[in-house]
Design a protein that fits this description.
The structure is a homodimer. By secondary structure, chain A is of the alpha+beta class. Chain A has 17 helices and 18 strands.
Chain lengths: 474, 474
């Protein structure tokens, strides 16, 4: 059993499965110094951005090809030992933790851009390519890949967690943007799903079964995603509001009107203060919408005029524009650094991030009650949201050595998730279930649907070696 | 075994499973006159728009509720008898045929619009609601459901086949537009998948596993889909081109430029002639693009200007506009009636429809060689295409009593699919696999991926009673 730690009340107690020396020997024989059992390497692969402490994996294999992954999986399968895929380690929900022991397969060296098909608006990459690397690789084509979860995550990891982020309100999530995959199955076989055609009705949608499967059905080794023409015009603007409610109502109305806004982020006043300090900005210290408009110059102008009108009706300030690429980058970097700005605001703290998403009309209800609860708790927090999708994140900033603060944070999260579910929403908009949301998943999907997921898992991974103990208990 | 018919060379020979009288008795006890064994009713449910002849189902149950479906499935399961869901009967690939015998469950009476959530841009309907009925029900909200496969199909059937059609180039397919489902599983249990939230990372994407599963994993009973604000401005236009190539190159370029065109349909000169005759139109008898632009008045104007310029470069005629709703409806009705216009052009004929989809840059290659082959064959045909997605349909018009003509048509289809696959495409863009494309699916996806589909099927439907013998042989 795991040694009890401060956080084990959140991690189901399961057997750490034995990793026989014969497997380690076989991996070392196959991978030489690309199989490491050094404690520092194991520990680095035994944690992520979540706040769980579990023992590290028994070894780390640095895969450089699909064949490497297939061989590592086949060897682990022969010994019924878990395989945990690892990209850049940016998971927020404990996906990378070796809760049942096993071997971490690090795909970060699988970082080749395999094919840029600019004329088809697609690109095929290995799983370890990060989103920034991908965008650098396609820059000269005039195309871009919009999905942006903040972290410079690997495309493999983003596929496995069905990631999205700031641009999803216009361009969709990994669900909509992955066209095809190469996957190593639990037996070490290599299969392909999907094609580069934009649509298909050919059989079960295995692509979307793997997108969001969190490594529990196989290891994603190659991904083909859609690209988009870089917009002719881009403008970013901020607008400050007298209240969160006013900002949210403005957002709801622009979505209901069908404004094709590319990004609309809510930043609460706590976060504005933290960001100002961290990024040396002087944003007005009020709840704020940070927006971006993409399109032809005329379309950008029209969108902005519509939104300015809506904002005005809710007491929003005039837009402050960031029209040059440099100003835009500064603003979005500041937004993406909100987590670090928040962590800096309370030295030594850890953040527990929530991730609910609700139907857009219920966003104000869900958010305002949860803000009230968070304020009442006295726990410091920050609040940011991809509000155009009804998705937002509280980050509760807690002292990791104070179990009471953790309990307060978890209670707030429980209440928030219960509220989101009662409003027709989901317990996770983009981070995934991982370890943290297994209980919530049953509340959300129902026991029957979760049992169907388990049935699929058992059928495709009969030895339960693919990232076991994530999404649901097995 | 099936009695041999003219078409059985295309239908795998499988056992018609016995339907015990005890099951019929139990169904009659439960459903009274809503369970019919009248030959006329069975025959009506034993065919679709495909050209296969197989014996009809043993009985038809007219379900009026999810509980009806669940009970019918549970009874059939107790006797290991197949269940074939039936919507409006518009399948083109034999999905509705009782190839292994069994019970047809007709959901057309499950035609309630359950919830219009206009402020969230969603609607929840029973499976038997048709797309026109859905659009009538939401008309007063200023929203619409864009997916339009031509036929007034049921939303359940459209979900089950991952349908799309003319608007998909802008609004996506059923894959992108179904948010949540209620499904009766193979054991007669009722589960729900997804939520009304726009995005989620909560566990396996069961919604998209059922979308496109062609009734083989369960019966879809309720569907929540996305709606869109009715565009402020809509314009439709036709442009005639000196060649198919010119029309296709114009299309490829508009997609590569990112023009958000709502519809762009290719109609070849054969089809223009047939449509003119059938719909009493006087379209110029040349290859034609039929287009529709949605957006603000300015955006529609900009889009149209860009496309006109591209068309001109390829020798396209000036646009002929259809700006009033009546003119537009007349044009699109004519397009949707292309199949009937074609059938009328050769009295007594049957059409075999192809459905390949390729990456947009390969569309000209794929189409032009296939046109040449079709012309060389001497078989009459029509050709229409959702060319903005790289998807097109040949309809070969053959004498059903002439096996040679059928062989010619099937040979053309084989060559076309092989070409599409070699260009990175799919054997079916929107019709589904059904009976007709099982062999092609293996060519496209590979034996490993198809075996994974079978594994999922066996796990979720261990008695193989859900529409067996479709997608893959079992």
């Amino acid at each position: 059993m795991n040694a009890p730690t401060a956080f084990t009340h959140l991690v189901p107690e399961v057997l750490q499965r034995a990793v026989p020396p014969a497997l380690i020997d076989a991996l070392k024989a196959r991978f030489a110094d690309r199989c490491s059992t050094a404690m520092a390497v194991r520990e680095q692969h035994g944690r992520d951005e979540s706040s769980f402490d579990v023992p590290p994996p028994a070894a780390v294999v640095f895969a450089e090809s699909t064949a490497d992954v297939a061989d590592a999986v086949a060897l682990a399968s022969a010994h019924s030992v878990p395989i945990i895929p690892f990209g850049v380690g940016s998971s927020l929900e404990g996906h990378l933790l070796a809760v049942q022991g096993g071997i971490s397969v690090d795909v970060s060296r699988m970082n080749k851009v395999l094919a840029v098909n600019a004329e088809d608006l697609t690109v095929t990459v290995q799983a370890g390519v990060t989103r920034k690397q991908l965008n650098d690789a396609v820059k000269s084509t005039g195309l871009f890949f919009p999905i942006d979860p903040g972290a410079d995550a690997s495309i493999g990891g983003m596929s496995a967690t069905r990631a999205s982020g700031t641009n999803a309100v216009r361009y969709g999530t990994m669900r909509e943007n992955v066209l095809a995959l190469e996957v190593v199955t639990a037996s070490g076989e290599v299969i392909r799903t999907g094609t580069r055609a934009k649509k298909s009705s050919a059989g079960y949608d295995l692509t979307r079964l793997f997108v969001g499967s969190e490594g529990t059905l196989g290891v994603i080794t190659e991904i083909t995603v859609r690209l988009y023409p870089f917009p002719e015009a881009i403008s970013a603007a901020t607008s400050s509001f007298p209240s969160i409610e006013a900002a949210v109502l403005t957002t709801i109305e622009m979505i209901q009107l069908g404004v094709p806004i590319a990004r609309v982020e809510l930043i609460d006043v706590n976060t504005v203060r933290m960001v100002n300090k961290h990024s040396k900005l002087s944003l007005r210290e009020e709840p704020m919408l940070l927006m971006e408009f993409h399109g032809s110059p005329n379309s950008v102008k029209e969108q902005a005029e519509t939104v300015q009108e809506l904002a005005k009706e809710h007491g929003g300030q005039d837009f402050e524009w960031a029209s040059t690429p440099e100003e835009r980058t500064r603003l979005w970097t500041a937004r993406h650094n909100a987590l670090f700005a928040a962590l800096q605001s309370r030295p030594g703290c850890r953040a527990i991030s929530t991730d609910t998403c609700v139907p857009i009309s219920r966003l104000a209800d869900c958010l305002l009650e949860s803000v009230q609860e968070a304020d009442d708790s006295g726990l410091p927090y920050f609040l940011v949201g991809h509000v155009g999708d009804g998705n937002f994140h509280f980050g509760y900033l807690l002292d990791p050595n104070d179990p009471k603060e953790r309990d307060v944070a978890e209670t707030l999260n429980h209440k928030l998730v219960a509220r989101a579910l009662s409003l027709g929403g989901t317990c996770t908009g983009e981070h995934g279930v991982g370890l943290h949301k297994m209980g919530f998943l049953v509340d959300e999907a129902g026991a029957g649907a979760v049992e169907m997921m388990r049935t699929i898992k058992r059928a495709l991974d009969p030895k339960n070696i693919m990232n076991p103990g994530k999404i649901f208990s097995m």
